Amino acid sequence: MRTLLIVAFSAVIASCSEESPEPPTKWSEQPLPANIPIKPRWYTQAQVDQGETLFRKNCAICHGQNAEGTSDWKKRDTEGFLPPPPLNGTAHAWHHSRDILRKVVREGGANFGGKMPGFMNLLTDQQIDNIIAWLQSHWGDETYRRWQIIDEQSRAF
């Protein structure tokens, strides 16, 4: 019996000393569960086309022609504001539900640490959705699927 306990204890110790890969630290780096269905995107190509025109006219001056944002978008400027982030799926825009994205475009970015002006007097709700459609058309499938989960969860409450 004593030999069996020693062998078992040795096996436990050996398994603890084996290096195991670090688990991903960010939700965006963790693999998506296989049971999450792939849903079609919510927008049409016509919305994407209209959104591109609207984005280039109203947003590109700050966020870049292809929604690439500024290179140091995480670093506050001398006034304490965050510069325009990328909106092409490489930054944090996909972490926000469509309602939050709409709100930021309508009301501006002051509540999020930036100084983006609000566009509620310049753009209709449909035009704002078209801009969001164009932005999301740049997002890869996995980024979009992660956003879908966030968006669906935000509407569940």
Q: Would you give an account of this structure?
A:
The protein has 157 residues and is an all-alpha fold. The chain has helices spanning 2-17, 45-58, 60-63, 98-107, 125-136, 141-155. The model is unreliable at 1-25 (pLDDT under 50).
Order of helices and strands: HHHHHH
Helix content: 40-55%
The total of beta strands comes to 0
Radius of gyration: 22 Å
Percent of sequence in beta strands: under 5%
Query: Could you say which structural class the secondary elements and strand pairing correspond to?
Result: mainly alpha
Question: Number of helical runs?
Answer: 6
Poorly predicted parts: 1-25
Nearest-integer average pLDDT: 83
Dominant shape = globular
Report, as a whole number of angstroms, the end-to-end distance. 56 Å
Largest sheet: none
Question: What's this, in brief?
Answer:
With 157 residues, the protein is an all-alpha fold.
Features:
mainly alpha, 6 helices, about 160 residues, about 45% helix, disordered N terminus
Per-chain topology:
Blueprint: H1 2-17, H2 45-58, H3 60-63, H4 98-107, H5 125-136, H6 141-155
Helix pairs in contact: 2-5, 4-5
